[in-house]
Design a protein that fits this description.
The protein is α/β, with parallel strands linked by helices and 341 residues long. It has twelve helices and twelve strands. The longest helix is centred in the N-terminal third of the chain and has 20 residues, at 94-113. The structure holds nicotinamide-adenine-dinucleotide and 2'deoxy-thymidine-5'-diphospho-alpha-D-glucose.
Length: 341
Amino acid sequence: MNQLFITGGAGFIGSAFVRLALAELPQSEVTNFDALTYAGNTDNLEGIDAEGYRFVHGDITDRDAVMEALGQGTDAIVNFAAESHVDRSIASADEFVRTNVLGTQVLLDCARERKVSRFVQVSTDEVMGSLPEDEREFFTEESGFSPNSPYAASKAGAEHLVRAARHTFGLDTVITRCGNNYGPRQFPEKFLPLMIANAMNDQPIPVYGDGRNVRDWIHVDDHCRAILLALRKARAGATYNIGARNERRNIEVAKSVLDQLGKPHSLLTFVKDRPGHDRRYAIDSSLIESELGWKPQETWESGLGKTIEWYQTNGDWVERARSGAYREFYAQQYGSEVKAP
Ligand code: NAD
Ligand code: DAU
C-alpha cells in the first residue's frame, strides 16, 4: 500500500488508525480527509509529523473536494468518517443520513472514477441489531440486518451501498463490523470516557435504564490492527466481524471505572433509558481470526488501566472536549436528571 486515503482520521478511531498506518507502512503516503465536526479534533493528531502524511480539511459529501484530494494511483480508501453517537441520532437523524449514507456513496463514486484499488468501509455490529440475553447467541457475518437506531440504520444503508458498488461495478470492497471501542481520545459523549471524565471530577455518572445492557468492548488499537490486516490481506468482497470476546454489563463497567479511580459507587445515577436501547451485543470474530490470523493483544484489565491513565494524564484534552457546545449537548441529553459538568 503506497497511497492511503483515510476519512474521519481526526476522530477517535481514525486518529489511532492514522498512527498505526504510519508506523506499520512507513513508506506510504497517507492523506487524512476530515471535516472536523464537533467530534473531529486536530489535538488528536498531535505528534504526527511523518513526511508522507498530509491533512485535508474537507467533507465526504462534497464530491469536488474529495476528487481534488484523492490522488491518481490511490491504493485504498478507508472510510471512518461518520456521525457516530446513537443518542445524537435519536435527537436528530439528518446529519447521520447525510454523512453516513450520502457521504459513503460519494466516496464510492470517487473511488471508481479514480480507479482506487480497494475500499474499506468501517462499519459496526449495530447494523445487526440486538441479541437476547442468552449467552450462546453471537453476531456472525451471516447475521441479518436489523438496525434499531437511526445511527445503526444509516450505517446499514452505507453497507448496502458498498455491497452494491461491488456487485454492480466490481469495486474491490471490504467491510469490517466492530463492537464498542475504548481507548485514548474518545469524545466524552460516549459512555466510557464520559464516566472517566465525570468520575475524575466527582460528578454523577448517568446509567441508562437498569444498567444491565451488555456491550462487547475492544481496545481501539486492536480494532485498528484488524482493519489494517483486512486492508492488506482480505479477500475482495469480504465482511469481517471484529470483537475481543469481552462482554460486560454497563453497570459492571461503571463500577470497574469507579474502583480504578478510587471513587465511590454513590456517583452512579440511574436515569431514564435510551429509547430503543439495544440490550446486548456479542461478536463472534472467528472468521477474521481463522482467515487473517488476527487476535486482540489487549486484555480488558490491561486496556482499561492504560485508558484511564491516559485520561488522567491528559486532563487538558478532556477539559477542552467538555467545553463549549458539549455543555449544551449535555444539558439537552441529560436534562435536570444529571447536572451538567
Ligand atoms: P468519531 O465520532 O470519534 O469521529 C468521526 C470523525 O469523522 C470525526 O473526525 C469527524 O470530524 C469526521 N466526520 C464526520 N462527518 C464528516 C464528513 N461529512 N466528512 C468528513 N469527515 C467527517 O467516531 P469514531 O468513534 O472514531 O468512529 C469512527 C468510525 O468507526 C465510524 O464510522 C463508526 O461508525 C465506526 N465504529 C465506531 C465504533 C466505536 O465504538 N466508536 C465501533 C464500530 C464502528
Ligand atoms: O457497538 C459499536 C457501537 O458502539 C459504535 O458503532 C458506536 O459508534 C458507538 O458509539 C457505540 O455505540 P453504543 O450506543 O453502544 O455506545 P455508547 O457509549 O453511547 O453507550 C454504551 C452503553 O452505555 C449503551 O448501552 C448505552 C449506555 N450509556 C451510554 C451513555 C452515553 C449509559 O448508560 N449512559 C450514558 O450516559
